[in-house]
Specification:
By secondary structure, this protein is an alpha/beta fold. It has 22 helices and 10 strands. It folds into 3 domains: 9-85, no CATH class; 106-275, Collagenase (Catalytic Domain), CATH 3.40.390; 291-490, no CATH class. The radius of gyration is 27 Å and the shape is elongated. Bound molecules: zinc ion (ZN). Residues 1, 67-68, 210, 214, 220 line the site of zinc ion (ZN). Zinc ion is lined by residues 1, 67-68, 210, 214, 220.
């Protein structure tokens, strides 16, 4: 991404200095097509002269053309020179006339790391990448997977990830990316230190939305206007009508976007037309949606839909998710965002993004807790037989707890909520539910916690809040808040859970 401070003037100055080359380092030629041809013919610019004018990234030696598009080799630069500067036919990101895109397998596993070399900016980059990735994932059936375990060796030779995100400085761009099909060594998103300065009205997330568009194969939208000074080449296939507000359109190239770089309706449509609509969100995955539980949990829904599971599902997809309603004993999006500060910052109240994150990243790779009643890492590590069966397959471990471990075997899903213990210490519940563990767990979710009832040997929420005067002052009888304090702070502070 290269943002110019004023329309084309920087480019104009550079172009004049470069003897009217069609393309020079970091910007494109603000001259008409006729002028380009004429100038090229008149000046007989040699490849060597052209090469001398193209910006080369000191760190990697790649050539940067069209603002932020890397060309890996001198051969590629020569091809670019012949085809674009000398007005040939194809563009760099088209292979044999076919769309350059990820395969259907690759598109669902676009793994990346974020180098620890970002230092004090690391958390900001992680968050901006998550935000940018979620925008494309909402638009199309693609999935960026953050592999935080690779951050320590997040470089161009790490083959455990599809691409690396690393810092750089002194470059001619804010950030640059790559197109699908590039070899591993060149699949990087490099973020220049200038991106951490004042880049208003853009944000780092906005810059990365643009760069991730490149990684999915999308060209600069402004190259579609052949009369534009920012025209690059004809090596593209239009997916939608021209969109001057596109996230892929440089504002200084006749773009109409005056705010941050965001995906437009056309961007969403274009992305889904090439990768398919987002059907992998799995928002009605049984781990996050149980129609009966959903209807039982909300009186307004039970009144409206009775026991109609299809109506419940439709409500969930159309309204319940965005309202932050809970529809599973195993997952609570509000709790998930509350206890994981990085996700709260990235997604705020985007509960669909939270669900998507848990299913495909937080649960799958990181073992993140998604409910007070189920802490899947605790569940697997506490029971040796489950560890042997499920190992790292935590998604299956969730199913085990839902359908077997909790209701049939009475296993504890978390250190704080043990359904057998809950039934054993509350005679009114054991009388009412007579061993129906699912009903007992529902009672805890709907009533027991807010009543301050104890649900495990190691944690007693009412004695916890009453034992510590600061907690009593802060939470009073808000036992849900006190419960969450224990998880978010109390354990780390060395407090006692059942004093
Ligand atoms: Zn770009």
């Amino acid at each position: 991404m290269r943002i110019l401070s004023s329309t084309n003037e920087t480019c104009v100055a550079r172009i004049l200095a470069a003897a009217a080359l069609a393309v020079v380092a970091g910007c494109t030629a603000p001259v008409s097509e006729e002028r380009e041809v004429e100038d090229v013919a008149d000046t007989s610019t040699s490849f060597e002269d052209f090469e001398a004018q193209v910006f080369r990234e000191p760190e990697t030696g790649v050539y940067i053309v069209d603002g932020d598009t890397p060309l890996i080799s001198r051969d590629e630069l020569r091809r670019f020179y012949e085809q674009v500067v000398l007005k040939g036919a194809l563009a760099v990101n088209v292979a044999s006339g076919a769309d350059v895109r990820w395969s259907n397998t690759q598109k669902m596993n676009l793994t990346y790391c974020v180098s620890t070399a970002f230092g004090g900016n690391h958390a900001a980059v992680v968050q901006a990448m998550a935000t940018a990735a979620s925008a494309w994932q909402a638009a199309a059936d693609v999935r960026f997977v953050y592999r935080s375990d690779q951050n320590g060796a997040c470089n161009a030779s790490n083959t455990n990830v599809m691409f690396d995100v690393r810092p750089t400085s002194g470059q001619d761009y804010l950030a640059r990316a790559f197109f699908p099909g590039y070899p591993r060594a060149y699949r990087n998103i490099l973020i220049d230190s200038s991106s951490f300065g004042n880049i208003a009205p853009y944000t780092l997330a906005g810059i990365l939305r643009h760069e991730l568009g490149h990684t999915l194969g999308f060209r600069h939208e402004h190259t579609r206007v052949s009369a534009s000074p920012c025209f690059e080449d004809n090596g593209w296939r239009g997916l939608t009508p021209y969109d001057s507000g596109s996230v892929m359109h440089y504002p200084q190239c006749g773009g109409t976007n005056r705010g941050d770089l965001v995906l437009t309706a056309s961007d969403n449509a274009g992305a889904s037309s090439i990768y398919g609509a987002n059907v992998a969100l799995q928002l009605d995955d049984p781990r996050v949606f149980d129609a009966a539980f959903y209807l039982q949990s909300y009186g307004d829904l039970a009144a409206a839909f009775g026991s109609d599971a299809t109506a419940a599902r439709n409500h969930w997809l159309n309204a319940g998710i965005s309202e932050g309603r809970r529809a599973s004993r195993a997952f609570d999006a509000r709790f998930y965002l509350k206890i994981h500060g990085d996700l709260q910052a990235a997604f705020q109240t985007n509960y669909a993004a939270a669900i998507d994150h848990w299913l495909n990243q937080g649960l799958r790779f990181e073992g993140r807790r998604g409910a007070r009643e189920l802490d899947v890492s605790y569940y697997v590590s506490t029971y040796g037989d489950l560890q042997n069966v499920f190992g790292a397959n935590l998604r299956e471990a969730v199913n085990h707890w839902l359908y077997q471990g909790m209701p049939v075997e009475g296993r504890a899903g978390s250190a704080e909520v043990d359904v057998n213990y809950y039934l054993s210490v509350h005679p009114d519940l054991s009388a009412a539910y007579s061993g129906n563990r699912t009903a007992a767990l529902n009672h805890f979710i709907w009533n027991g916690l807010s009543e301050g009832r104890r649900a495990s040997v190691s944690f007693n929420v009412s004695s916890y809040v009453n034992h510590y005067s600061d907690l009593k002052a802060a939470f009073g009888t808000d036992y849900t808040a006190a419960f969450d304090h224990w998880i978010m702070a109390g354990i780390a502070e060395g407090r006692t859970g059942a004093p």
